[in-house]
Amino acid sequence: MIDPRILKIAKNILIKNMNLKQNEKLVVVTDPPTMEVANMFFESAFSLDFQVDPILVLMKPRDFRGEEPPVLVSEAMMNSDVCLLITNYSISHTEARMKATERGARIASMGSITMDMFLGPLNADYGKISRMVSRISEILRDAVSLRITTPIGTDLMMSLKDRKPGGPDDGLYTEPGRWGNLPAGEAFIAPVEESVNGRLVVDGSIANVGLLHEKVVIDIKDGRITEIEGGAQAKIFEEFLKELDDPNAMVVAELGIGVNERARITGRIIEDEKKLGTAHVGFGMNVDFGGKNLSKTHNDCVFLHPTIEIDGQILMENGKLMIEFT
Questions:
Q1: Domains of the chain from N-terminus onward
Q2: Which of 87, 142, 279, 285 keeps 20 to 30 A from 300, CA to CA?
Q3: Residue 78's closest CA among 169, 10, 177?
Q4: pLDDT at residue number 326
Q5: Reduced to 3 states, what is the DSSP secondary structure of residue 128?
Q6: Three-state secondary structure call for residue 316
Q7: CB burial class (10 A; 0-12, 13-18, 19+) of residue 206?
Q8: Distance CA 18, CA 21 (A)
């Protein structure tokens, strides 16, 4: 039996977050691991008070984040008005997604989403998230330099000069060509790649690895990973990157700051990176949000209790935002 609370949230997302309207084409892209969530959105489309034209597209699971979907799936995405990407591995950072948004599709990417997120981070105060993302993005837009540290050893320096924040990832994808994640809630930017230097100590989660049980230490020089240290999970991440045979997968792509109060650390990056009080550094593809690094993958590393200093001013201290939101 369908939980009426979840059905209501799914309908609200279609109407309020995606601005789905009468007679529009809704495409839901999915794979077997995420079919349950996809079916919830698909079924909710039939319970709306107006007529829409939903299509459910089932494909073989991708092997890693950022792997392109089949051509037929890409074509369906490009011909949609609203497109939900509900897949085990995210296809956010793909040419297929970029082409679809260029054609005007309104897209929500939900890589690795689970049913329990409906009553958690998906059921968020999107007005508040939008205000927080907008304010932090304003600060990032004007920033020149950024330093990020944590109590367990992260110390990274980077330049943001002439870079603009991506998104906004506020969950409100109501205009043609708008896209982002659901669950939503991060301000993010592509730093000047070669400017990033220092050490990243990850204690939350890593894409393609999951929830961390031990810290993973990543040394970065001139924007590129030079060494990964730690235990078994560090080895898994290192081997994953090597097996991609893509040198640009080792390049710093993103700095992100989570603002969703209902998000948790679960090992699912789509939720972890949105948690208020965390930050993340992504590696790989970033040409789709203002960077210059072309890669076939994008992988985020989430860490806890960051202190973020921008041009000498403290934005976040030990995971607490130090600015007010109106």
A1: 4-117 (3.40.50), 126-321 (no CATH)
A2: 142
A3: 177
A4: 65
A5: helix
A6: strand
A7: buried
A8: 9
Written as one string, the DSSP assignment of 48-73 is: SSS--EEEEEE-PPPSSTTPPPPHHH
| Mean of all residue pLDDT scores within the chain | 97
Q: What is the pLDDT of residues 83-136, one digit of tens each?
A: 999 999 999 999 999 999 999 999 999 999 999 999 999 999 999 999 999 999
Q: Which residues fall within 8 angstroms of residue 150, CB to CB, at 6 or more apart?
A: 201, 203, 303, 304, 305, 306, 307
What token pair was written down for 301?
């590393």
* Confidence at 325, pLDDT banded by 50, 70, 90: confident
**3-class DSSP state for residue 3?**
coil
160: its two tokens: 């943001």
**Which secondary structure element, helix H or strand E, spans residue 183, and what is its range?**
none
Do residues 142 and 165 touch, judged by C-beta distance below 8 A? no
Q: Which amino acid is at 157?
A: M
d(CA 217, CA 201): 5
Q: Is 23 left (phi over 0), alpha (psi -120 to 50) or beta?
A: left
Contact assessment for residue 48 and residue 15, using Cβ atoms and an 8 Å cutoff? yes
Q: What whole-number distance in Å separates Cα of residue 92 and Cα of residue 188?
A: 14
Rounded Cα distance, 238 and 285, in Å:
17
**How far out from the chain centre does Cα 24 lie?**
26
311, 314, 317, 319 alpha-carbon torsion, rounded to 10°: -70
Average pLDDT over residues 59-76: 97
Residue 292 structure tokens: 């210059």
d(CA 92, CA 97): 6
Are 276 and 258 in contact by the 8 Å Cβ rule? The answer is yes
